[in-house]
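TICKET: design request
STATUS: open
ATTACHED STRUCTURE:
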């Protein structure tokens, strides 16, 4: 069989990683496939900026059309990012009967359902392993390795920038702003880090993984999102006193009354395997009803790890092309007629445990007032730390609760924050220590 022609659109960090892998591991990949992957065109608007990996000047172009219209290119790799132009390029590639590989989680979160439908219509495939957790093969694990399982929970640390910042705040006591500046200086955070620190990037990835896990369309607009920019190191320290670590978690849970899809700062027990994931690393912990607990861990971004995932997609497509089939596995793991919307539980109805920190005047009776309001809203206290006696000055009162409903928690805190003896809005963080058999 002739070699399989590849066109790369977007010669950035990940594109450089892919080129290096295709060059350095060419013989290994050819032996595993029985055919050769040949990079025939590389397109980028700026061909002259310095790059760590160079491409053959003869295959460089500034025109995406030189790839999209080339009959000798079988697979288009989109690594340009963004939504508008990338969507147009992928759509045209599919309409021209070319397979597509992308790492574009934002595009898939917003337009994946539409693009998957177009791929089916055109008899072509979209592969996207690199869109979730970078070099960690989580999509393949969900679609293939765990195919016989009813996925019950997914807990993911899916953004290395946020995890690095929280690690520095935990280990060194840095403020959020100082940890962010350090992450930017080290190249872990963008100049505009909002997608990472506000949880949007994590939510993009969770919406894709949740669709595969639960057999639903991608439902990004149903994911609850809360970032880490308001986290205070004092809450991290109090969490440690109670035996918890703070992480920005992507949480998906399959329940009898709908699925939970949420991203927010979360306290998890020290003994949980995710508690030890530090720095810019990613990890995903899943529970299947047959396999039990599994965890995948590794670098979720970077030139070579993400390039590895893109190259793996190319190899999967090469096998399909040799078999003469559009794809062996549907993009969301279920045939189109078996995918249906599943209700996503409103955040107000989610039940979990909570951490509260009240800024209260240290007077007799304050604790009883607060606990009384919590009790009126069906919130039971599990543990309390109350610091010092400093007359007329606010002191932190820190509580952990048993399971409570989010709506009840918000109503209670709104009432507590109106008390004359509470001088600042209550800080609260959700805790995941229920179903410990699925988290350990």
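STATUS: resolved
RESOLUTION: sequence designed for all positions
ATTACHED SEQUENCE:
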């Amino acid at each position: 069989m002739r070699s399989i022609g590849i066109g790369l659109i977007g010669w950035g960090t990940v594109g450089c990683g892919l080129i290096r892998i295709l060059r350095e591991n060419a013989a290994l990949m050819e032996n595993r496939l029985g055919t050769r992957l040949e990079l025939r065109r590389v397109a980028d608007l700026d061909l002259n900026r310095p790059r760590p990996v160079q491409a053959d000047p003869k295959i460089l172009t500034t025109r995406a059309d030189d790839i999209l219209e080339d009959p000798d290119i079988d697979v288009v790799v989109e690594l340009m990012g963004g939504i508008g132009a990338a969507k147009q390029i992928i759509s045209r590639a599919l309409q021209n009967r070319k397979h597509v590989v992308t790492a574009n989680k934002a595009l898939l979160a917003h337009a994946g359902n539409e693009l998957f439908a177009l791929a089916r219509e055109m008899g072509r495939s979209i592969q996207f392993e690199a869109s979730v957790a970078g070099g960690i093969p989580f999509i393949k694990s969900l679609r293939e390795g765990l195919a016989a399982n009813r996925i019950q929970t997914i807990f993911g640390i899916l953004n290395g920038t946020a995890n690095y910042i929280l690690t520095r705040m935990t280990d060194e006591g840095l403020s959020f702003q100082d940890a962010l500046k350090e992450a930017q200086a080290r190249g872990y955070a963008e100049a505009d880090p909002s997608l990472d620190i506000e949880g949007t990037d994590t939510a993009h990835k969770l919406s894709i993984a949740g669709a595969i896990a639960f057999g639903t369309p991608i439902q990004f607009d149903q994911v609850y999102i809360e970032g880490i920019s308001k986290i205070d190191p004092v809450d991290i320290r109090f969490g440690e006193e109670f035996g918890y670590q703070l992480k920005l978690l992507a949480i998906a849970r399959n329940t009898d009354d709908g699925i939970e899809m949420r991203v927010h700062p979360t306290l998890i027990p020290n003994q949980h395997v995710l508690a030890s994931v530090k720095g810019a690393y990613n990890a995903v912990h899943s529970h299947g009803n047959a396999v039990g607990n599994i965890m995948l861990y590794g670098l979720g971004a970077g030139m070579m790890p993400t390039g590895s995932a893109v190259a793996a997609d190319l190899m999967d497509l090469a096998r399909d092309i040799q078999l003469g089939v559009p794809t062996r596995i549907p993009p969301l793991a279920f045939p189109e007629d078996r995918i249906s919307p599943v209700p996503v539980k409103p955040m107000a109805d989610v039940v979990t445990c909570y951490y509260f920190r009240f800024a209260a005047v240290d007077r007799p009776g304050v604790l009883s007032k607060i606990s009384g309001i919590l009790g009126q809203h069906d919130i039971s206290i599990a543990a309390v730390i109350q610091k010092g006696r400093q007359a007329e000055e606010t002191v932190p009162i820190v509580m952990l609760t048993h399971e409570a409903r989010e709506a009840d928690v918000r109503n209670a805190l709104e009432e507590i924050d109106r008390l004359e003896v509470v001088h600042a809005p209550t800080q609260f963080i959700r805790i995941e220590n229920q179903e410990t058999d699925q988290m350990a």
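CLOSING REMARK: The chain has a mean pLDDT of 95. DSSP finds 15 helices and 17 strands in the chain.
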